[in-house]
Design brief:
By secondary structure, the chain is an all-alpha fold. The protein has three domains: about 60 residues, no CATH class; about 110 residues, Orthogonal Bundle (Annexin V, domain 1); about 90 residues, Flagellar motor switch protein FliG, alpha-alpha superhelical domain (Annexin V, domain 1). It is elongated, with a radius of gyration of 32 Å.
């Protein structure tokens, strides 16, 4: 097929046959010379080593040999019908986002595999704010290694989000990272990727405050007040987070812009709206009722006022059920992207 010529000699025709490894090295070198970004890091370490050694041992090949190797490679590619992921790690990557997070995390743990490829790619893909909790509990030396693997601008943003003394220790530690071995670098990268995977594969879709807030959204006002009072005594900071996560009928004026009220009214069952307004006789709930009435068409507002008046006194449980139905509809609209809730301002 052709021969390899020693460095400094003209390529010769005929002679020794090329091995499959040499042919693979020719194709790799050709593709790299054309600017193709080959994911060679995904190969097993021993194959990466062999490929590097073969590339280092080769010098010149003639045009006929190159054409023959390329033709053979193209023929083999055309004969391929379908390729499957390499091993369980590759299968998990191929199914990423399609398996439940819990199942994916369990399979990775049981098989002892991590994401294929460079684990540092996972770290580099994080937003600066997501890197901060990743390195908060790490030593300054490990944090310095993580920052050194980030793009410079992103690393600067991460440092800016850290306390001054912590940022200074990490900055100094960066000067010590040149002595880190490749093996240690891989271990740290895998550890960081494992933490990212564990966070992403959390069984719960919401944080604790959001979860408690969602539960209390559908509780009676008496239960909600009692729970918040108990949380105030146990953990006042967490209680404040839960209050921010709670969205009830009384929160509507602060969370829904006046211009969006007609859109909300079109999606709400009118009997539920009338019942809720009839039940909202004082305090924040009455203010929420007025927020609806003053921002819908005058004719519809008059009609609802009249029907609410005819209902008389509404049972507490019926009023709360109607208000919860309205809140659920609003949350559904928000989740579908049909409504943007206003950010609730923190109290001073």
């Amino acid at each position: 097929m052709g021969s390899l010529a020693p460095l400094g000699q003209a390529p010769q025709r005929g002679g020794l046959k090329l091995t499959r490894r040499q042919k693979a090295a020719i194709i790799v070198h050709l593709l790299l010379s054309q600017g193709v970004d080959l994911p060679l890091r995904d190969l097993p370490d021993d194959l990466q080593e062999v490929l590097t050694q073969v590339l280092g041992s080769m010098r010149h090949i003639d045009r006929d040999t190159l054409d023959s190797v390329v033709a053979e490679f193209v023929a083999e590619v055309e004969e391929l019908g379908l390729t499957f992921p390499a091993g369980l790690a590759g299968a998990l990557n191929a199914l990423d986002g399609r398996l439940s997070p819990h199942t994916s995390a369990r399979l990775r743990k049981e098989a002892g595999v991590m994401q294929a490829g460079d684990p540092w790619d996972r770290v580099r893909g994080l937003e600066p704010g997501d890197v901060v909790p990743l390195i908060e509990q790490e030593s300054a030396e490990v944090a310095a290694i993580v920052l050194s693997k980030l793009e410079v601008g992103k690393a600067a943003q991460v440092l800016g989000k850290l306390p001054g003394d912590r940022a200074r220790r990490i900055t100094y530690a960066i000067s010590q990272t040149t002595a880190v071995s490749p093996e240690a670098l891989d271990r740290i990268g895998l550890s960081m990727a494992a933490q990212i995977e564990a966070q992403r594969a959390s069984v719960f879709d919401k944080g604790p405050a959001e979860m408690v807030g969602a539960i209390l959204n559908h509780s009676t006002s008496a239960t909600r007040d009692d729970m918040l009072m108990g949380l105030d005594e146990t953990d006042s900071d967490f209680a404040d987070q839960v209050r921010r996560a709670i969205f009830t009928f009384a929160n509507i004026p602060a969370r829904i812009a006046a211009r969006d009220i007609p859109k909300v009214v079109r999606n709400i069952d009118q009997i539920a709206l009338t019942t809720a307004i009839a039940a909202a006789t004082d305090g924040a709930e009455k203010a929420a009722a007025e927020h609806f009435l003053s921002n819908m068409s005058g004719r519809l507002a008059d009609q609802i006022r009249e029907e609410a008046g005819e209902m008389g006194k509404v049972k507490a449980k019926d009023g709360e059920a109607a208000m919860n139905e309205i809140v659920t509809t609003i949350r559904t609209m928000e989740a579908a992207g049909d409504l943007l809730l206003l950010a609730e301002e923190d109290e001073d």
